[in-house]
Amino acid sequence: MTIRLGDIAPDFEQDSSEGRIRFHEWLGDSWGVLFSHPADFTPVCTTELGFTAKLKDEFAKRNVKAIALSVDPVDSHIKWIDDINETQDTRVNFPILADADRKVSELYDLIHPNANDTLTVRSLFVIDPNKKVRLTITYPASTGRNFHEILRVIDSLQLTDNHKVATPANWQDGDEVVIVPSLKDEEEIKQRFPKGYRAVKPYLRLTPQPNR
């Protein structure tokens, strides 16, 4: 199954390090970050899960829940969490799905046979409160994810959902944003962007970032 942007994230029920999870019910009205790992007790994954735990406050202020996945069973996850807590100087504060039967992996197309026919790839999905998939990223097993980039994209999604703007290359929260080309009415522009804008080109209009 190929999951594309705008699709409803497939629902599922699966065991995890924090008990049985019904995914859509667990998400509630939050944003979600679902990310997969090749296996427990692997070095890059250990650093990723540790860093995710340290981002708890950053996720919370954006109304985001994190949930990880690998194809190992719950008892393996519990032992691995002890290692993560010890080596990364943190406490894992989110569930790790125990996808031993590959049910979720198949729903989310997380096993790529040309990469490895048994282990899940390093994929990530950002899911909004309407359960729609808003971002998909797949990394090779050798490369750890950039979680600052994931937070940046969530900031952009939440901002652009609420305002008629887009975010330019390398945008960071607080930078100028682009007024969408479809917005033509100058009175509406004045109301929406009271600080004004500068037109680099008629289709490229930059304005100070509105409040999220």
From TrEMBL:
PROSITE patterns: THIOREDOXIN_2
A GO molecular-function annotation: thioredoxin-dependent peroxiredoxin activity
EC number(s) recorded for this UniProt protein: 1.11.1.24
InterPro entries: AhpC/TSA (IPR000866), Peroxiredoxin_AhpC-typ (IPR024706), Peroxiredoxin_C (IPR019479), PRX_1cys (IPR045020), Thioredoxin-like_sf (IPR036249), Thioredoxin_domain (IPR013766)
Chain ranges of the Thioredoxin domain: 3-159
Enzyme class, broadest EC rank: oxidoreductase
Alphabetized UniProt keyword annotations: Antioxidant, Oxidoreductase, Peroxidase, Redox-active center
SUPFAM superfamilies: Thioredoxin-like
Entry-linked Pfam families: 1-cysPrx_C, AhpC-TSA
PANTHER family, sorted: MCG48959-RELATED, PEROXIREDOXIN-6
Family: Belongs to the peroxiredoxin family. AhpC/Prx1 subfamily.
NCBIfam families associated with the record: PRK13189.1
Protein name per the record: Peroxiredoxin
Organism, scientific name: Stutzerimonas tarimensis
